[in-house]
Amino acid sequence: MRFEKKGIIGEGIIMIYRLLVISFVAFVILGVSSVFYSHYIDVRNAEARILARDVVDCVSPSGFLDMSYFVEGDENKILSYCGFDESEVERFYVEVLVSDSEKEVAKFSQGDRGALWVLQIADEKFFEGDLGKYKPGYFDEVYPTYILSEGEKVEGNIRVEVFVGDEF
Amino acid sequence: MRRLNKQGGILNQIIIQLILVGIVFAIFLLATAGKVNARGVRQQVLEKEIALLIDSAVPGMSFEIRKNNPNGVIQALELRDGKVFVGVAGLGSFKGYPYFSRYSVSVAEEENKFVVVVE
Fold it and tell me: Which of A79, A154, B62, B79 has most Cβ atoms within 10 angstroms of its Cβ?
């Protein structure tokens, strides 16, 4: 009879121990899964729009684009030319196309061109549901400007395309 | 008869244990995940809002973020390695959210608010 009582107490202790282990495992599983399944808020299109505005303000301040300000090597470093730190704009790909009424005058870019085909794939509806958060943010706009080149002032426009990769 | 009693006792124990385990999982599912997700979303909202404000700010601008925010009480706001980190409602930030700016950006803590200054 005494042995039976001890046995019951022992079983109770083992049960508490098991529950503690299960609670710990549950806590770890839920903690980790909550990180992966938390709601994702996408602001990359807004970031693309802001960066496009900044780049246009930089290359064409007050609506005048002076080609003499650019030196050789700026073509692939337009964000650095504008004063952005390279580490801050790792997620971005920017392409700036300057043209007058007849031809392309200059082309500037910076970043990872891979964002272009990632967006293409995403647009073909491969990125649905949770994968949507890997679809790059995108902004494309044409701004009118005056181009100052070799002492001449001509009307033209600036086409800016901005791609924003994910932050993961 | 005695053998049947013993088997019944084991079955009862297993059922009790299963119920207790189920209760433990249900409590964690409702309490922990719910709270962490809600705070995580509020943290994400704050970090992204502040990052967008910094992205679009020009020199001379400053903006205030009240500690008693509709998204929860903000304990910490840091700008580190090009990222915004916001600690909200007891939830610290480990990842942060990246911002970009051509200008110098700093944050100062005051009694009941944080002030972000763009110079």
Answer: A79
Query: pLDDT for B63-87, tens place per residue?
Result: 999 988 887 888 889 998 889 999 8
A124: which 2 tokens?
């073909």
* Same domain? B44 vs B27: no
Q: Is the dihedral of CA A131, A136, A137, A140 positive or negative?
A: negative
Residues of chain A contacting B33 with CB distance shorter than 8 Å: 30, 33-34
Residues B93 and B54 occupy one common structural domain: yes
Count of structural domains within chain B: 2
What pTM did the predictor assign? 0.74
Taking the Cβ of residue A28 and every Cβ of chain B, the question of whether any pair is shorter than 8 Å is answered with no
Which residues of chain A does B40 touch, with a Cβ-Cβ cutoff of 8 Å?
34-35, 38-39
Whether A31 and chain B come into contact, CB under 8 Å, resolves to yes
Per-residue pLDDT reduced to its tens digit, B13-49: 778 878 887 887 777 776 655 555 677 888 888 999 9
CA distance B58 to A54: 10
B24 contacts A23? CB cut-off 8 A: yes
Q: Which residues span the domain enclosing B113?
A: 38-118
DSSP string computed for B53-81:
HHHH--TT-EEEEESEETTEEEEEEEEET
Q: Which residues of chain A have pLDDT under 70?
A: 1-6, 8, 30-31, 33-38, 125-130
What pLDDT, in 10s, does the model give residues A111-129? 888 888 888 777 776 666 6
> Token digits for B104?
């110098």
> Do B61 and B26 belong together in one domain?
no
Instruction: Determine contact, residues B117/B108, Cβ cutoff 8 Å.
Output: yes
B19 and B51, same domain (yes or no): no
- Find the closest chain B residue to A23 by CA distance: B24
Enter the ipTM.
0.72
